[in-house]
Design goal:
globular; serine protease; five-stranded antiparallel beta sheet; about 775 residues; Rossmann fold; 14 helices; Prolyl oligopeptidase family serine peptidase; about 30% strand; eight-stranded mixed beta sheet
Length: about 775
């Protein structure tokens, strides 16, 4: 079914290619703009026809076996049930074969630690969906802080009707195991994009697009309101609003005893925001540049600048972490303590407070390193004493975060155990309980995830720094024979001479003759880092899969080859901090694509693979990345798997949440910026007479972040141009993730993996 512009009106009610408003860049003719009507009957008929065609190609016997093997991984009951602590209970959300939509449940620490928890099921989402006739997708919740000595009882739970970003918030009584009836005053917010936070037992702070409340051009909430029990959103008191062309408004309350504060955030763009705190009924903006990220913890205010920041004559580099007393800073003091300063190899990824310590999660050449900082003791390399946590093997990703920084429970277990397997030891001035406990989650490409719990204590007068005890709580099962594979890190040289790290996972007996099916994955945007991670699905679907027997190198014995999996750490990501990200922003976007192409060329030059055996895969911004590989570097790849992608960079700001990404890509309505943006807009770079790789484009109807229409239009244009081997599939639910349960996730992963394997391993050299 091929459509042209003449066959269909514009989705915007204006003919595609019509004269633009004065000062606005022209829109190229778009024969597929009719596909922008996401839920139109004719459009969905086109989707179903495409889906049937793709499923006929891919869903053979090998596919069915692959999907079942991936589903076995996702549904495994031996997976680690990750938990969050609230009061005395440890909460978990769990999906498996019998509970595809999931169970929200809890258990006690002794039960969890013992390895076979006795779960107390609070909510069965499958039963809820069946009872209400709505395919709810659970998106978590937040608890109301109880009165001292009382249990955590009331929670605000978020549910998406289709897996998208818009949620319905409903008040839940944990002890009664049910929703609080709106007729009895229970909170039940209509579906919308935004956030909700408890102010007190009878009041919420809400920013939402529900009930007709105004939204920004980016499709997010524009106002924040104070919603009292029994009120509707339209009756709620307005607290805060932002201009329409800003990204979103957020309102939230920090209920930490002694440090209660109400915040409002004017999120101007993806990388700029102004934060205000409510004082005496007035909003007081925290006086920092909009590109300095803020966070607060009790008496402390932390700063992470995205660009170099000069304060009172001192310049703090982008990506550093600084601290000041919260009240001192608001009063005008600019005495900043340097907690971390980046170097060319090391970046700060995240941080987490325990009761008395600050945990910093760093990357050093994309391998984890964790520092423990003590604000009560002066340091040497940082303002606060810093100790390296000995928990990070090379080429692994390890993250540390607090178990419950607010647990100041008196005393210890009767047996003197601190709850983690170590002897309880509290130095003078420290809080007892689990307040200084932390989780460690460690993973690697060939290392199943391990969950460890530890406790931090302050060292003695010897200056030894913070010390910790550790206990391994859970280890994920093995889903493939990891011992047969090795992880290597290599560095490719990009066009401008920058060294680009990448990870290569392959068989220990890998033959470097250019004939190995290789899957290259990347992202390169929004300061998001790609780090080592165990995936049973990748292990089964790619590493362990075998080609038919082929001739060995230099006439050697024939052998069956497995796949090689590669992750590229290109610019635009956050692997080396904000400067690595900013290097590929807007007009410099091509650096990300040059980096990825350099990795592809390095794999070929090293003999790992060849054009015929090399495929790439990416989703969302990664979909834009591989869309540019398809259109700008087709000579490097044999196949491209492009998921939930941005592809039409002229109209991306008019689709779903696209306007919010102008800070990343630029504004295509600006004629000067469009001249740059159009050079990395795959939809506009397609040309006749090019030998394009085999292409699979996949998306989801209910994706309300990127939306499905850019993927639709790209596939339609390629097919209309007569480009062979172009396939399209659109899941009818699942949101931006493309799947709302394990079965859908297994199908999504299987289609992409099977497509790449057929294209790269099934052809003759």
């Amino acid at each position: 079914m091929t459509a042209t512009e003449a066959d269909h009106p514009s989705a915007s009610g204006q003919a595609a290619g019509a004269a633009p408003a004065a000062g606005t860049a022209p829109e190229p003719i778009d024969e597929n703009i009719w596909l922008e009507d996401v839920y139109g009957q004719e459009q969905l008929a086109w989707v179903r026809e495409q889906n049937a065609r793709t499923e006929e190609l891919l869903e053979d016997a090998d596919y069915t076996d692959l999907e079942n093997r991936i589903l076995e991984v996702l549904d495994s009951t031996d997976r680690i049930p990750m938990v969050g602590k609230h009061g005395e209970w440890y909460y978990n959300f769990w999906k498996d074969r019998d509970n595809p939509k999931g169970l929200w449940r809890r258990t006690g620490w002794d039960s969890y630690r013992a390895g076979a928890p006795a779960w107390d099921v609070l909510l069965d989402v499958d039963a809820l969906a069946a009872a209400e006739g709505q395919d709810w997708v659970f998106h978590g919740g937040n608890f109301l802080r109880p009165a001292p000595g009382e249990p955590h009882r009331r929670a605000l739970l978020a549910f998406s009707p289709d897996g998208g970003d818009a949620n319905r918030y409903r008040e839940f009584d944990v002890e009664a195991r049910g929703f609080v009836d709106p007729a009895d005053g229970g909170f039940d917010l209509p579906t919308g994009k935004g956030n909700a936070s408890w102010l007190d037992a009878d009041t919420l702070l809400v920013a939402t697009t529900a009930d007709g409340l105004p939204r920004t051009t980016s499709s997010y909430a524009r106002t924040g309101v104070k919603l009292r029990r029994g009120e509707s959103l339209t009756q709620a008191e307005k607290l805060f609003d932002i201009p329409e062309d800003h990204m979103m408004a957020i309102v939230a309350h920090d209920s930490t005893p002694g440090f209660e504060r109400t915040f409002a955030v004017d999120w101007i763009s993806f990388f700029e925001k102004n934060t205000s705190v409510l004082r005496d009924g007035q909003w007081v903006q925290i006086d920092v540049p909009a590109d300095v990220n803020l966070s607060s913890h009790r008496e402390w205010l932390l700063f992470r600048p995205q660009r170099d920041w000069t304060v009172n004559g001192t310049t703090y580099p982008a990506g550093s972490l600084l601290a000041a007393g919260f009240e001192d800073f608001l009063a005008g003091s600019r005495d900043l303590a340097v907690l971390f300063s980046p170097d060319p190899h090391t970046s700060l990824q995240s941080w987490s407070w325990t009761r008395d310590f600050l945990l910093l999660n760093l990357l050093r050449d994309v391998s984890s390193e964790i520092h423990v900082l003590d604000p009560r003791r002066p340091g040497t390399d940082s303002a606060w004493e810093a100790t390296v946590l000995d928990a990070c093997p090379p080429l692994h990703d390890v993250n540390a975060f607090a178990v419950d920084d607010e647990d100041d429970a008196e005393g210890t277990d009767d047996d003197g155990d601190d709850g983690t397997g170590g002897a309880a030891s509290v130095s003078e001035g420290e809080s007892p309980g689990a307040g200084n406990d932390f989780w460690l989650i460690a993973t690697g490409f060939t290392t199943p995830t391990t969950l460890t719990r530890g406790t931090l204590t302050r060292g003695g007068d010897s200056g030894a720094g913070a010390t910790s005890t550790h206990e391994v709580i859970r280890t994920s099962p093995s889903f493939f024979n990891e011992a047969d594979y090795e992880v290597q890190q290599h560095f490719a040289v990009s066009k401008d001479g920058t060294k680009i790290p990448y990870f290569q996972v392959g068989s220990k007996d890998l033959v470097l003759d250019g004939q190995n099916p290789t899957q290259l994955s990347g992202y390169g945007g929004f300061e998001i880092s790609r780090t080592p991670a165990y995936s049973g699905a990748v292990g089964r679907a790619w590493l362990e899969r075998r080609t038919a027997a082929s001739a060995g190198a230099e006439g050697g014995a024939p052998h069956r080859r497995g796949g090689v999996y590669v992750v590229a750490n290109i610019r635009g990501g956050g692997e080396y901090g904000p400067s690595w990200h900013r290097a590929a922003l807007q007009g410099n976007r091509h650096r990300a694509y040059e980096d990825f192409a350099a990795v592809a060329k390095d794999l070929i030059s090293r003999g790992v693979t060849s054009r015929e055996r090399l495929g790439c895969v990416g989703g969302s911004n990664g979909g834009l990345l591989v869309g540019n590989m398809l259109t700008q570097y087709p000579e490097l790849f044999g196949a491209v798997s492009c998921g939930v992608p941005l592809l039409d960079m002229r109209r991306y700001t008019k689709l779903s949440a696209g306007y919010s990404w102008i800070g990343e890509y630029g504004d295509p309505d600006d004629p000067e910026q469009w001249e740059s943006i159009k050079t990395f807009s795959p939809y506009h770079l397609l040309k006749d007479g090019v030998d394009y790789p085999e292409t699979f484009i996949w998306t989801a109807t209910s994706d309300d972040r990127v939306g499905p229409v850019q993927a639709r239009k790209m596939a339609a244009r390629m097919q209309a141009m007569g480009i062979p081997n172009v396939w399209f599939h659109e899941a009818l639910e699942g949101g931006h993730a493309g799947a709302s349960d394990n079965r859908q996730a297994a199908a999504l992963q299987s289609r992409s993996q099977h497509f790449l394997w057929r294209a790269l391993a099934g052809r003759e050299a």
